[in-house]
């Protein structure tokens, strides 16, 4: 067994290329970081590009909490064709002319998919059904249904409508979506097309932001190969969570798992720092006491 790495803990914001799985990115980062303690906060499909948040060493403990934050995407939706995967990688299952669809119809369809909605995930997703990934069941030819789940689409903006020269029967929409964790952009494309009666699927997807981390902070794999560095865990936590500066005695107690008294922290995780600026824990206020949701002192 290889020795455990003692390298720096932190985040790496990767601009994922098309054609590579999120697990493939993690594998590359494990080699560059020299440790197996590497994970990601929320997958991207192989077709998709953009922001993938990677945690190294202790920062892997942040990932489950970062995965719950708001996300932003740019995408292209093709109206006039539905596919088995709800994106361009799947076979076309139905087609109907979309050239006559008006902007008013599109805007009405988009409005119906904005705000708190119940969304049925794409069947070719990583959701488990009876312990088996949904996409595995699809590949094995199973007929099943996924339950709808609540998500929030905070904004769904159509920037351009265009008809491709080589496919006059379809209509392409360039859009931006800001949404809660768990929202499937493929499913939005599918449902928009279904609502308009012509079918729809996703032909391009780029994630531009996960919580506070956006493309401006992201580096390509090629850049990381040339110069690998992490965003220190203290900076990463301070950017993503409200900060709570704890006195030295309180920090020592927190480091030992003691639930100390808190000020009025408000809802959600807070990053607790000691007087030296070190991240001690992520905590939540529970009855005036700090409940530790992730510790970083060891």
UniProtKB/TrEMBL annotation:
<dbReference type="InterPro" id="IPR032819">
    <property type="entry name" value="TruB_C"/>
</dbReference>
<dbReference type="InterPro" id="IPR015947">
    <property type="entry name" value="PUA-like_sf"/>
</dbReference>
<dbReference type="InterPro" id="IPR036974">
    <property type="entry name" value="PUA_sf"/>
</dbReference>
<keyword id="KW-0819">tRNA processing</keyword>
<feature type="domain" description="Pseudouridine synthase II N-terminal">
    <location>
        <begin position="30"/>
        <end position="185"/>
    </location>
</feature>
<keyword id="KW-0413">Isomerase</keyword>
<dbReference type="GO" id="GO:0031119">
    <property type="term" value="P:tRNA pseudouridine synthesis"/>
</dbReference>
<dbReference type="InterPro" id="IPR002501">
    <property type="entry name" value="PsdUridine_synth_N"/>
</dbReference>
<feature type="domain" description="tRNA pseudouridylate synthase B C-terminal">
    <location>
        <begin position="186"/>
        <end position="229"/>
    </location>
</feature>
<dbReference type="InterPro" id="IPR014780">
    <property type="entry name" value="tRNA_psdUridine_synth_TruB"/>
</dbReference>
<comment type="similarity">
    <text>Belongs to the pseudouridine synthase TruB family. Type 1 subfamily.</text>
</comment>
<dbReference type="GO" id="GO:0160148">
    <property type="term" value="F:tRNA pseudouridine(55) synthase activity"/>
</dbReference>
<dbReference type="Pfam" id="PF16198">
    <property type="entry name" value="TruB_C_2"/>
</dbReference>
<feature type="active site" description="Nucleophile">
    <location>
        <position position="45"/>
    </location>
</feature>
<dbReference type="Pfam" id="PF09142">
    <property type="entry name" value="TruB_C"/>
</dbReference>
<dbReference type="GO" id="GO:1990481">
    <property type="term" value="P:mRNA pseudouridine synthesis"/>
</dbReference>
<dbReference type="InterPro" id="IPR015225">
    <property type="entry name" value="tRNA_psdUridine_synth_fam2_C"/>
</dbReference>
<dbReference type="InterPro" id="IPR020103">
    <property type="entry name" value="PsdUridine_synth_cat_dom_sf"/>
</dbReference>
<feature type="domain" description="tRNA pseudouridine synthase II TruB subfamily 2 C-terminal">
    <location>
        <begin position="241"/>
        <end position="296"/>
    </location>
</feature>
<dbReference type="Pfam" id="PF01509">
    <property type="entry name" value="TruB_N"/>
</dbReference>
<protein>
    <recommendedName>
        <fullName>tRNA pseudouridine synthase B</fullName>
        <ecNumber>5.4.99.25</ecNumber>
    </recommendedName>
</protein>
<dbReference type="GO" id="GO:0003723">
    <property type="term" value="F:RNA binding"/>
</dbReference>
<comment type="function">
    <text>Responsible for synthesis of pseudouridine from uracil-55 in the psi GC loop of transfer RNAs.</text>
</comment>
